[in-house]
């Protein structure tokens, strides 16, 4: 039996049915899905909890604290939820890059 983790990321042009992958080492399965919206993230989490029996959800830095809380609530506490966050300077670099590429509208922050 493998430890199963789901990595979720946001992209404005994502297609959750197309932009996904699986790395399977035998004892570790890492699923990744890129979603467009928080609603899609919730839907994907529910699907993977029910159908893939995942143990952990890993979220990209684009998820807000509110998004993380909503995802945790969706899990019913049965799945670990973690967020990839950097230090202050790294966060600013990431934010600048995401704005430049259109992930974030400039007036959102």
Q: What's the layout of helices and strands?
A:
Blueprint: E1 3-10, E2 20-24, E3 28-35, H1 38-51, E4 56-59, H2 65-75, E5 80-83, H3 88-100
Parallel strand pairs: 1-3, 1-4, 4-5
Antiparallel strand pairs: 2-3
What does this structure look like?
The protein has helices at 38-51, 65-75, 88-100; strands at 3-10, 20-24, 28-35, 56-59, 80-83. With 109 residues, the chain is α/β, with parallel strands linked by helices. The protein has one domain (3-108): Rossmann fold (3-Layer(aba) Sandwich), CATH 3.40.50. Strand 2 (20-24) and strand 3 form a beta hairpin. Helix 1 packs parallel to helix 2. It is globular, with a radius of gyration of 14 Å. The chain starts with a strand and ends in a 9-residue tail after the last helix. 17% of the residues are buried.
In a few lines, what is going on in this structure?
The chain is of the alpha/beta class and 109 residues long. It has three helices and five strands. Strand 4, helix 2 and strand 5 form a beta-alpha-beta unit.
Which radius of gyration do the C-alpha atoms yield?
A: 14 Å
Tell me the total number of β-strands: 5
Helix-strand category:
alpha/beta
- What top-tier CATH class fits best? Alpha Beta
The CATH architecture category equals 3-Layer(aba) Sandwich
In angstroms, what separates the terminal alpha carbons?
Answer: 43 Å
Quote the beta fraction.
25-35%
